[in-house]
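Hey, sorry to bother you again with one of my protein questions. I've been staring at a protein lately and its backbone has me curious. I owe you a coffee for this, so here goes:
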Amino acid sequence: MTQRSDRRVIRLLAWNAAAGAALGILFAAFLVFWDVAGIGTLLARSEAPLPALALLFAGFAVTFGGAVCGTALMSLTDDRDDDDHGGRLQPIPVPVRVRRK
């Protein structure tokens, strides 16, 4: 059984992946509708436009969904402070011996 914080992270990633996929599908629909680079014309003149549309929309959905999901994952912060420095890195002096030539 997963912990409560794990469920929150999974829910956050699922929502962001779904939102990114929806954004990708919307973007692909605009590309087809505005006929960018002749994509709409190619699809209209194709003998089998459904597989091409499915590949176009699925590709954009996966790409945008992964990008939005990755952005959400990288923006997560850990609120637990393991030290007295508030989560900031502190320099540590390291003694080094150097031989003279």
Observations:
- The two ends are 63 Å apart (CA to CA).
- Residues 4-74 form one domain.
- The CA atoms of residues 42 and 87 lie 54 Å apart.
- The chain has a mean pLDDT of 89.
